[in-house]
Amino acid sequence: MEDERRTPPSLEARVTEVLEACDYEVQQAVGLEQGVIDWFATPRSSFIRPRTYFRVLPRSPEDLNETLAELESARVARKADRAVAIVMSERLPGGYAPDLVGRTSNVLTFRRWLLEISGIAEDARQRAQPSEQERRGQTYLPRRGRLADGAVVPLEPFIEAWMDRPDRPMLVIEGPPGSGKQAALKHAIDRAAVRFSHDPEQATLLVDIANMYLASVMQIALDTGAVVPVITRSSLLRAAPMQEQAWRCLLTARMADTLGPPPPGIGVVRIVLVPPSSEEITSWYRACLGSQELTGRLLRARAENDSFRSLSGALPNLGRIVSAVKSIELADRPASIDAWIASVVVAYVDAMKLEERALPPSGMEGEDALSRYLEDIALAQFAMGLRRAAEFSVPRRFERTRGALDSLLTWFDFGKVEHKNHLLRDYYIARKIAREVSAGNSEILLRYQLPPFVFLFLALIAPEVSAQVTQGRVAQLDEKVRSEVERKLQLTFAHLLNRPVGMVRARLREIRDGIDRERATALARSFEQIEEELRFIQSLAERTRLWETAPDEPIEEVAVRPVIEELGRELNARHPAVTLVIDVESSVRVRAMRDALREVMQCLMENAFHATVMGTEDRASCVTAVTRPIGAVIRIEIRDTGCGVPPEDRQRIFEPLVTTKKGGAGKPRGTGLGLPIARRYAEHMHGHVGLDETASETCFYVDLVAWTEGA
């Protein structure tokens, strides 16, 4: 035993190098036996700092039981917490299995000890503890790959055979976006971890060396053949040149292109992932779900919804979709297939846990920065189109932990800055709305005509907001129904009104022509009253048509005075007793639709003429048209000396079919549509019609944007 402990200094120096790299303090002490140095290691940063006595043996002892007994005795004598003998040879005698938990003293090969002390073995054991679904193969659909010679082979056995090759080349996995390259790497690492858990002395581990901070320890592990490297990120590998064994790695085509060609003597094998067929995916879902009801719902959803078929058919999403489908309790399963799809999507996104893996987008802070980024893009894409959405900044980078990014990339394009899947777009619109409403911005509920799935998602993620949205939608729907009924009634009313006017007038002419002059004179007043009623009906029909029909002409430069002068001549011809005063400069011009402006002025001036005719006899019958600038706006005022508008009617007069002119005694009869038409037409020209309640006379006005050259 004493000879076995007298090792060349280089062996103990190598062990010391590993211990110090793993943040252990190494101590040498004069041994209890003459001429022998005792070695101890203590963790520097651990809360519990057990002291380990260790020896380095060049080869395996012949009698392990004797060695273990002597090692335990030495541990006790040296008051150490643990003891380990590190054997630099490859193997220990068959039948021996170290007990790292139950025994305080153990004999380990350098290979096994290196994996344990560095934490590589513990990481592998964690990976080898799969969930129940993983044990049934329910989170991964096995891949196939095509080699350069055209042969198609199962990917997982091919990788395992490659790991055992002493002259192992670089193995590059290729495939289009969404083919599951990262998932294939993860699955290969997990399978190697399971094999290690069954045979830790002999099985080789696949390790992502880009995630290892113990670069020197990893290099030793590579040299011993204990691990085979996988490279998912090259950023940590650029600081120092890669050693030869690190080039004999497993990686994706993107990483291979980043690293460049390997050194001479190391070959490159490329294998292209072959996408599974729709039938293979369906069969896999049947096997994973088991339940005929769940499988039937999933297949129906895939058949009826293109976005769901795309989402559930992308390889990185398969395991999460299975988990999402199974997470919906039987009692909570909606009857509607769309509602069921929404429930699955919500569970799917929850399972991704993106926030734990994402770095914030540029310019955004906070734990939910990624969600806010995806929400903003979703709403911009829906409301403003992709060109506007593309103005958003792109996140700097995202952690590619456990395939979350692979799933994200199946439905979001960081290059084009857009959601590729409408279901996920609608989900993030719903999240955006819930966030805005919670912050007090309820106006967002009325700003957009939202897709139906947004409301399904809201009902799941924010029921209280969903209730507000539903109420708003009911009100909007009610208003829409009312408007449509009103529009159809107006069209029908106008048609029915116009149809008898011509017939009645024709019959009236026949009566006039068929009676003698004396009787015609006697009935003249009756004939005039009938004609007045016909004019009113015709005016009502025309106004009804105008009320329903929105102006549709370009906005242009329009001089105001000629419009008022032309209308004034027509109205004065019908009401000669009314004086019209036009106080409008010829230079006044506005931005307006020419015919629409004429209709607005027709309504306002006719309203003023009628009001003046209906006024009391002690007032002069006068209508005045005045313009005045208010900043960049031209206000056109129509004033009259009529009896005014009662205070209780000042808000109602702009509503359809409300009039204060009841007619009778030779006075004009209002249709109740003039002022509403004037206001509606003005709004189409980005203007406004109102009543100046502060004026001494009755004063209606229209505000329009002043015409400016070059504007």
TrEMBL record:
E.C. numbers: 2.7.13.3
GO molecular function, one term: protein histidine kinase activity
Recorded superkingdom: Bacteria
GO BP annotation list: phosphorelay signal transduction system
Keyword Transferase annotated: yes
Signal peptide: none
SMART domains named among the record's database cross-references: HATPase_c (SM00387)
Catalytic reactions on record: ATP + protein L-histidine = ADP + protein N-phospho-L-histidine
Residues annotated as domain Histidine kinase: 492-708
Keywords (A to Z) from UniProt: Kinase, Transferase, Two-component regulatory system
Entry keyword annotation includes Cell membrane: no
Gene3D superfamilies (UniProt xref): Histidine kinase-like ATPase, C-terminal domain
Alphabetized PANTHER family for the sequence: HISTIDINE KINASE 1, TWO-COMPONENT HISTIDINE KINASE
Name of the protein in question: histidine kinase
Phylogenetic placement of the source organism: Bacteria, Pseudomonadati, Myxococcota, Polyangia, Polyangiales
